[in-house]
Amino acid sequence: DTHHHTSTCLLCACSTPLCVNCSLTTKPSSMVRKEITTAAGTRKKVLMGSHNKAVRVRTTTKFSRPKTLSRPKQPQYAKKAAAMDTYGKLPTFDQYKIIKFPLTTESAMKKIEDN
Description:
rod-shaped, mainly alpha
């Protein structure tokens, strides 16, 4: 029978069934052969270097930086008036604006004269 498996080490071909150097003979011979071939392929790649690195195809002409984390602002103090919290917007017309820009329409002048 030619396919009869002899208990010799496959890596160093010594006659001992349990090789001290390799200890691969405890596994089935098909697994050992597969491991040897993958190891040989890896050895070749490491020594020679693999030259089939995939080149990424560019589909756009523009180069844009990746979007990074943008945190919400945490101000030390409120930059604008506290009315932002109350109304959600700055008041367009308050007691100081009336002094800076008084209403000079005819109806406003009439109200001032009457009161």
